[in-house]
Amino acid sequence: MTRRLTGFQPTGHLHLGNLIGAMRPLVAAQDRPSIAMIADLHALTMEHDPQAVRANTLTVATVLLAAGVDPQRTPIIANSQVPEHTELHYLLECVTGYGEAARMIQFKEKSAAGGTVRLSLLTYPVLMAADILLHDIDEVPVGEDQSQHLELARTIATRFNARYGATFVVPEGIRPEAAARIMDLADPVRKMSKSAPSPAGRIGLLDPPETIRKVISRAVTDTAGVVRHDREGQPGVTNLLEILRACSGRDPGELTSYGALKREVTDAVEAVLAPIRARYAELLQDPSHVREVLARGKAFVRPRAAETVRRTRAAIGLLD
Ligand code: AQP
Questions:
Q1: Residue nearest to atom 32 of ligand 1 (CA)
Q2: GO: which molecular function terms (predicted)?
């Protein structure tokens, strides 16, 4: 059976896009071998607050549990806690060209933002390749922004296998269906994002009902006055319709006003998020539980990770 890896960066507040685009598919696929990985090492590639990264890592793990990830079936790990990630990262750097890393669009965009560009930002996609190849992953759900990185992971795996002998499973990227991409409510041509400077377009998974209501009531629509699915012509309304479908499983009936649409969306989102908030609050009662879940996840994945590193070291010419 195919093995999947789904990653989450602990870079800010998880939002409805993360839930619909990544957490729910992860929960739905728990009958297959999957790993939920919190990419805390990746969060160090940009200026960051150490306390915030540590806190966000625990929050992401807790939200994954609250959203229904069953750690008995789907180990939850932080990539920093499994040292084989960093060891394989270095070994893979030795088969990756500088030019290959430097032409990644995300590196170009993020390094153009000014300030010191960390070397780890350049090698970020090689760490991502290590995250995947370490666990013999066959399938990685990726959005458009990560597809170039996944392609590089495939190139690295294929090159290594050809040069040093069969060592890695070559992973496939799988695309979440079009409806799984949730857009920013204030700027519906951009995806909803943790790092957007304004929270006005984002529905946080732990936001209180009043905030959710406000954000949705202020969502950008248009002047057409027709509730219609038209991604190009009416991106704001279409996004609201897609959120409604994702949260309630249905299209609206005879909605004639944007106000009515927004009220339906608010109710549907609240119905999905209320139980997650409640479960999250329960989990906070015992903070040691989430630490134990991460420790168990690490213990579960390590034998395979150690074996992959052993294979890689032997193939590339290191002593055992
Ligand atoms: N808007 C979205 N709609 C659907 N899926 C989304 N994902 C992210 N945004 C949306 C999916 O959530 C998973 C975790 O994402 P990530 O933590 O790796 O970071 P990201 O993809 O870069 O998402 P963000 O929230 O926009 O983070 P920042 O702002 O830090 O870059 C992934 O599976 C992603 O596809």
A1: 22
A2: ATP binding; tryptophan-tRNA ligase activity
Considering the domain architecture, whether residues 100 and 176 belong to the same structural domain is answered as: yes
> Ligand 1 atom 5: the closest Cα is on which residue?
21
Same structural domain for residues 16 and 157? yes
pLDDT reported for residue 163: 98
Q: Choose one of 56, 194, 195, 198 to mutate for the ligand 1 pocket test, by most ligand atoms within 8 angstroms of C-beta.
A: 194
Same domain, 216 and 152: no
Per the structure, the complete domain to which residue 277 belongs is given by 199-282
Asked whether residue 54 is domain-assigned, the answer is: yes
Nearest CA to ligand 1 atom 12: 18
Our answer on whether the CB atom of 283 is closer than 6 Å to any ligand 1 atom is no
* Mean pLDDT within 280-289: 97
* Mean pLDDT of the region 187-197: 90
Beta strands in 79-179 (DSSP E): 139-141, 172-174
The tens digit of pLDDT for each residue in 239-276 reads: 999 999 999 987 777 777 999 999 999 999 999 999 99
Judge whether 118 lies within some domain.
yes
- Taking CA atoms, 214 is separated from 121, 211, 258, 259, 294, in Å, by 36, 5, 14, 12, 35
Give catalytic residue positions. 110, 191, 194
pLDDT beyond 50 at 179: no
Q: Which of 171, 164, 268, 173 is nearest to 216 (CA)?
A: 268
**For a pLDDT cut of 70, what percent of the chain falls above it?**
98
